[in-house]
Amino acid sequence: MATIVQRKRKDGSIAWQVQIRISGHPSNSKSFETKAAAQQFIDRVENNVRIIAGKTPNSPQTIFQQERFLDAANDFLQASHATPSQKSRIRAVLPHMGDVRMGQITSSYIRRLVDKLSIQPSRNGQPYKISSIVQYLSGISIVYCSRTLDFDLTPPSNLFFNHPLLKNWDIGRDRRLTKTEYVALMNHLPLPRKFNAEHWRLLIDLALETAARLQELVLSEFSEFDMQNFIWKIPASHTKGKTERCIPLSSYACSILQRLKAIKSNDSERVFHCWRNSVVVSSSFSAITRKAGIIDLHFHDLRHEAISRMVLYRRGVSVYEIMKIVGHKSIKMLDRYANLRADEMVSRFRTGVIPEMTGGLTGLTSPDHPPS
Questions:
Q1: Is the pTM above the cut of 0.85?
Q2: Distances in Å between the alpha carbon of 188 and those of 191, 209, 285, 289, 306?
Q3: Burial class (CB in 10 A: 0-12, 13-18, 19+), 207
Q4: What Å distances lie between residue 173 and 65, 169, 279, CA to CA?
Q5: How far apart are CA 257 and CA 227, in angstroms?
Q6: 310, 344 Cβ separation under 8 angstroms
Q7: In angstroms, rounded to a whole number, what is the distance separating the alpha carbons of residues 350 and 17?
Q8: pLDDT tens digits for 12-35?
Q9: Burial 151-182 (b: 16+ CB within 10 A, else e)
């Protein structure tokens, strides 16, 4: 019924591919990082077949419906194609799923789950936000739809987000950094220890200069930056869309990188070697904002700020070029991030002059921007 085949990827790493064959149906394959994970998957699928043998046909539909969501989720988490974002959403929703079977995940089940989360206190004592509930439903959808494809079934349409509470929830986050908040951040950075205050300042400023995502910044290596040609070539493995992206570097961004190279660790090629991953940075950034008295500012909001600045200040750069730089596939997504303030638009409309930039550009001056 099932076999395990060792496959070598283009980058030299090894994946273990499971081939599942059910009589009368097309074969399906699924890849895992370890042979043990692949074998566990086979054992469970074969056990499900044995359980229903003699009672109902060994159809893919029946096997799928009998499977526990927890088991399918754990398989996905170990799969080689699972992205960090997908894993984060799945792990977040697992505590709310209990021992539910895939066949029990119906429209009524989803409605009950949404209703429960909308009144149930979260870790901060408040009911879950709609945005959090949508992330949880996304985690369920990822596992559910992936599993249907494993068995050559058709994923259901509009199963997970057809709830009155979710209507028009996605109004988009429009939080930007203010000049006062930038100064407060710089004044409350950690003292030089393992997490150097200078690294924090340079990380924040580079985020504002490039509009890069936090993961792209934290994983970046000096070999990615061509400062002679003013280009940062982000490898596909570091980007959200898994496609290579090039970001033009301003003079100030190059100055930041030169300083980072001067203080780099000799045993690491990573630019921000003092942080293990983006989760650590995000959590620490939240602690810094609380200490600085800044309300509801996430590190990802710096990307909103940076993209808004690109739209305002890079007057000779087209919208299409900005989309390519920041990695947006549609004008709708760019519109969600370019949160222009009323005074900025009024000033540009009436005089062609934009008010001073709101934060950033301290310590080093940048000829690429108007003075602040």
A1: no
A2: 9, 21, 11, 8, 21
A3: buried
A4: 37, 11, 20
A5: 9
A6: no
A7: 62
A8: 778 888 776 655 445 566 788 888
A9: bebeeeeebbbebeebeeeeeeeeebbeeebb
